[in-house]
UniProtKB/TrEMBL annotation:
Protein name: Chaperone protein HtpG
Alphabetic keyword roster: ATP-binding, Chaperone, Cytoplasm, Nucleotide-binding, Stress response
Alphabetized HAMAP family for the sequence: HSP90
Family: Belongs to the heat shock protein 90 family.
Keyword Oxidoreductase assigned: no
One GO MF term attached to the UniProt entry: ATP hydrolysis activity
PROSITE patterns (UniProt xref): HSP90
Pfam families registered for this protein in UniProt: HATPase_c_3, HSP90
Superkingdom of origin: Bacteria
Annotated compartments: Cytoplasm
Assembly, per entry: Homodimer.
Biased composition (Basic and acidic residues): 212-228
Length: 572
């Protein structure tokens, strides 16, 4: 007996569906990419599970996804023999959005379709993209290792609710049946479907099969020349390369393939900014393909957010979000790591304490830093784009990764008095290059905002002397600087710290003047000290201010005022 239940989509799903149908309409063919991508993921998951229990293959171990269509019924059908879903999984995966922070995400939508479609793309719409072209979607699925009677059917018109019932399903895996909307006839076409799959899914590692096409018969000069006879039921052929992209040689992979592969593994809709593909043999044996996204993910600051690489061992998918291979300050990196040194039965626990992991982690970290260094050198504009998206995260680097501190420091960008702009475009190397002969330190000021930094009274003497000062105004900067004391052998010095010694930069003449002033103002300073009492640690005469009469500074060894504010905010 069919046990049928009606369920409502969660509010987020309904909202997402509505938005998606409108905003992704101009790019509707991506539904096929998303569904093929899911079938490939399902194959990966089954292979992994079958490592422990090969009976899950049920004598059907050639994993693939088949795409066909039925002109009369106006259906496009995808059928995979991957891991399938149980009833509970169907309800969980196809009725809710299993991503933390979804509410916040929807809060950000503006109602402006162009802007929202960008956001939606980042969010990754996956399965629900089926409703861009279909007014009804049926999913029939059976999880690997379950009985034929434990099949599940899910049906929805994408409007608020869906129905789930029990069915018999002989083959393991998932069929997705799209009932096309009236105006979507173009997808009921062999050539059309083939070309979309070739465009978006050539890199998919399982075969994507369609019915074999018969060559057209030539009817002579008057006949319907070149007309394709419809697909032949019964005979399937793979229409993609069906090898894992990262195992292929670099020269044979086009940029488009790299781009599409990125979208498959990252669930991002936009092309990546940059990638680095490396095969390493010898002491370590692995392949890595690491991507830097063009845009920060919508949930980059969400602590529960999954991140890390997709881990494969000897071509077999092991896990998503293997965060052991990327430090947290590079959590935006997406990609694949395929190791030949790890055992196939590796678990997160084992990964935690094997030498192989730490070696791979430092190798991958180096790769990313080098990729960024090259980008900064060869394409400053592109790097600037990267910095705007991920600079804040990269600034966590020196604190987290002492070993690569110097390399990270080269990648940092700040505002400075030289450019006189809020934009963070100045690297320490630029600063050092502009330094005068007699200057041996890098000066910076940090504040709550750019305006506060740029108008800090301590800058007056530096301006007068023509010395550049780095302007820091991000929340994280104090934290960063407390872990980065120098660059290229030059000490980083705050202009607002106690007895700032401008060293060689103070010339003899001013020294004499200063001494004279010290004696003249000695009694005034004493009176000020008495008047302020415990409120201050010390009162000193300063030679650093030009237009401002006085200012508050912190002692050389004390926390800066900015850091104190941070600590207070953190409840310390
Ligand atoms: P994502 O792929 O980013 O997880 P999707 O919306 O594409 O998001 O899919 C949601 C979930 O539904 C998947 O994570 C998976 O658990 C399940 N799913 C979708 N398609 C299939 C399939 N063909 N076989 C098995 N599970 C699937
Ligand atoms: Mg998906």
């Amino acid at each position: 007996e069919q046990h049928t239940e009606k369920h409502g989509f969660t509010a987020e799903v309904s909202q997402l569906l509505k938005l998606m149908i409108h905003s992704l309409y101009s790019n509707k063919e991506i539904f096929l990419r998303e569904l093929v991508s899911n079938a490939a993921d399902a194959a990966d998951k089954l292979r992994f599970k079958a490592l422990e229990d090969s009976s899950l293959f049920e004598d059907d171990g050639d994993l693939r996804v088949r795409v066909s269509f039925d002109k009369d019924k106006r259906q496009v059908i995808l059928s995979d023999n991957g891991i399938g879903m149980t009833r509970d999984q169907v309800i969980e995966h196809l009725g809710t959005i299993a991503k933390s922070g979804t509410k916040e995400f929807f809060g950000k939508l503006s109602g402006d379709e162009a802007k929202d479609s960008q956001l939606i793309g980042q969010f990754g719409v996956g399965f629900y993209s089926a409703f861009i072209v279909a007014d009804k979607v049926t999913v029939e699925t059976r999880a690997a290792g379950t009985e034929v009677s434990q099949g599940v059917r899910w049906v929805s018109a994408g409007e608020g609710d869906y129905e789930v019932s029990d069915i018999e399903k002989t083959g393991r895996g998932t069929d997705v049946i799209l009932h096309l909307r009236d105006e979507e006839d173009e997808f009921l076409d062999n050539w059309k479907l083939r070309s979309i799959i070739t465009k978006y899914s050539d890199h998919i590692s399982i075969p994507v099969e369609m019915y074999k096409e018969e060559q057209p018969e030539r009817d002579g000069p008057d006949g319907p020349e070149g007309e394709k006879i419809p697909a032949v039921p019964g005979e399937w052929e793979a229409i993609n390369k069906a090898t894992a992209l990262w195992t292929r040689t670099k020269n044979d992979i086009s940029d488009e393939e790299y781009n599409e592969f990125y979208k498959h593994i990252s669930h991002d809709f936009a092309d990546p900014l940059q990638w680095s593909h490396n095969k390493v043999e010898g002491k370590q044996d692995y392949t890595s393909l690491l991507y830097i996204p063009a845009k920060a993910p919508w949930d980059m600051w969400n602590r529960e957010r999954q991140h890390g690489l997709k881990l494969y061992v000897q071509r077999v998918f092991i896990m998503d979000d293997a965060d052991q291979f990327m430090p947290s300050y590079l959590r935006f990196v997406k990609g694949v790591l395929d190791s030949n040194d790890l055992p196939l039965n590796v678990s997160r626990e084992i990964l935690q304490d094997t030498k192989v992991t730490s070696n791979l982690r430092s190798a991958c970290t180096k790769r990313v830093l080098t990729m960024l260094e090259r980008m900064a050198k060869n394409n400053a504009e592109k790097y600037q784009g990267f910095w705007e998206e991920f600079g804040q995260v990269l600034k966590e680097g020196p604190a987290e990764d002492a070993a690569n501190k110097d390399q990270i420091a080269k990648l940092l960008r700040f505002a400075s008095t030289h450019t006189d702009s809020k934009d963070q475009t100045v690297g320490f190397a630029d600063y050092v290059e502009r330094m005068g002969e007699s200057q041996d330190k890098i000066y910076y000021v940090s504040a709550d905002s750019y305006a506060a930094a740029a108008n800090n009274p301590h800058l007056e003497i530096f301006k007068k002397k023509g010395i550049e000062v780095v302007l820091m105004y991000d929340r994280i900067d104090e934290w960063l600087i407390s872990h980065l004391s120098e660059f290229d052998g030059k000490q980083l010095v705050s202009v607002s710290k106690g007895s700032l010694d401008l060293g060689e930069l103070d010339d003899e003449e001013t020294k004499a003047e200063q001494e004279k002033a010290e004696t003249e103002f000695a009694s005034f300073v004493e009176r000020a000290k008495t008047a302020m009492g415990d409120k201050v640690k010390d009162v000193r005469l300063t030679h650093r201010l030009i237009d401002t009469p006085s200012c508050i500074v912190s002692d050389d060894n004390d926390m800066s005022t900015q850091m104190q504010k941070l600590m207070e905010a953190a409840g310390q």
